[in-house]
Write the C-alpha cells for this entry.
Amino acid sequence: MAAVLEVDRLDAFYGGFQALFEMSLSVDEGEIVAVVGANGAGKSTLLRTIAGLMKADPGQIRLDGSPIGGDRPERITRKGVTMVPEGRRIFPSLSIEENLVMGGYVGRAGKWDLDRIYDLFPVLKERRRSPGTILSGGQQQMLAIARGLMANPRLLLLDEISLGLAPVVVKRLYSVIPQLRDAGVSLLIVEQDVAQALAAADRIYCLLRGRVSLEARSEDINHQDLVAAYFGVQ
Amino acid sequence: MFAAGLALVFGVMKIINLVHGDFIILSAYLTLVLVEMTSISPLLLTPLVMVLMGFFGYLIQRGILNFTLGSGILIPLVVTFAMSLVIQNVLLEVFTADTQGLDAGAIELSSVTLPLGVTVGWFPLLTFAFAVVVLGALQIVIGKTGLGRSFRAISDDNEMASLMGIRTRHVFGMAMAIALMVTAVGGVILGIRTQFDPAMGPTRLIYAFETVVIGGIGSLWGTLVGGIVLGIAQGVGAFFDPSWRELAGNLVFLAVLAWRPRGLLARRQT
C-alpha cells in the first residue's frame, strides 16, 4: 500500500538541544500507527514537527510523496494533516459548535461535517451552544478530536488523547478510532499507555531518547523486546 | 472609540500598540486633507477615511508589525514607539506645528433640549450615537462572523488557531484594519471637537489606555463604560478648576486600578 506520510531521517532541535535524531517512519493509507515511549523520548516533538510547529527540511517529511517539511502549520492543515494536540486546547471563548466550525476552517472537501460529527458524538450536539470549557475532560477530548476531523484530514495526528482521563472514558474514545479508519482517515497516535496503543494500532514505533528503538506490527510484538526498547536496557 | 481599536489590537495580537495615539491624529489630518480637496463636510467623509485607514492598517500590520510578533513583548513596543515618532515628524514636516481643526458646520454649536429641561449639544449626542453604533458593529463582527470567530480563536490560542489552518498573518492584518477603521471615526470626531497638532498622539494614547483599563481588558462595552467614566471624571474635575481636568481622570483611573484591577466590566475568568 502507498504511504500517506513518510518521515525521512528527521532531526529536531530545541535551541541547542537535539530532540530527534535521524528519525524515519511511515504511515500507510488507512493504517493506524502508534508511537510509544517514555517521557522525553520525542513523541510530541515528532507530531509537532509533522504539523509544522517546528522546523524541518522539506524532504524530511512527505505527504503522499510531496515534501511538506517546514511548511507553515496552516498550509499543512490545508494539505490534509491535522493535529489534535496534547491537552485538548479547546478555544474557551468559542461555543462548542464554533469550535467545530473553526476546525472546518480550511474547507477541505470530505465526509466530515457537523451532522456526521454530531452522529458520532451526540453529547456535543446537546450542548452545542455552550462554551467548550463546560464539558468534562473526556467530552473535551471528543470535541478536540471532532474539531480535528472537521478539517477532513488525510492523516490525523492524535497526541496523548488518554491523558488524565478515567479508563472507561479512554475506552469510549478509542472505540471511535476504527470508525475513523473506515471513513478513510489514516492515524498516527502518540500514547503513553502501551497496552492501549497495542490494542488500537496496526503497527507501533517505540522511541527512545529521540531515536526509533523498535518498529513492529502490533500482533508480532514481543514483550521483552518492547520493554528493552522502551527503557533502553539490553 | 480610540480605546476600542486599542483593545482589539491588544486582544488579538497581544501587542501594546504605542503608535495608536498617532493613528488617531493621522486620521484627523487625513480628513483635513480630504476636506480641503473636496469641500465636503468631514462627517460625510468619515466612511472614506475609515476605508483608507483600514487599508493603511492592513499594510502596516503585514508589512511591519507581523515581523515583530513572536519575539517577546519588547520588540513590538520599540517598533511601535519608533513608528509613533516617524508619524509625528512626518506630520510636523508636512503640516507644521500649527494647530488645525475640522469644520463640521452649524451642527457643532446647535443643541437640543431634552425632557426635564436638559440641554444637550447635537454634536456630543452624535458622538455618543457614533460610539454606540461603532461598538455595536464591532460586537457583531466579533460575535457573529467567521472573521470574528478567528479573532477569538487566535486570542485564545494562537498556535492552535494556526493548526486549524487559520492564516494568522492575514487575520492580524484584518484586526489592525478594523482597529484603524474604528480609530478613524474617533479621529474625525476629535478633529471636529478640538484643535489638533502633530504632537497630540501620545496624550490620546494615555486616555485610550486608561479607558481600556477602567472598562476592563477584553470587554468592548467595558470600553464604552470606561470612556464615559473617564469623561465624567474629567468634566467634574474641570468644573471645579480647569487644571483639575487631567488630575481627576487620572485619580479615577488609579482608583479603579486599586479596587477593581481587572476593570469595571472585566471578562469573567474561565
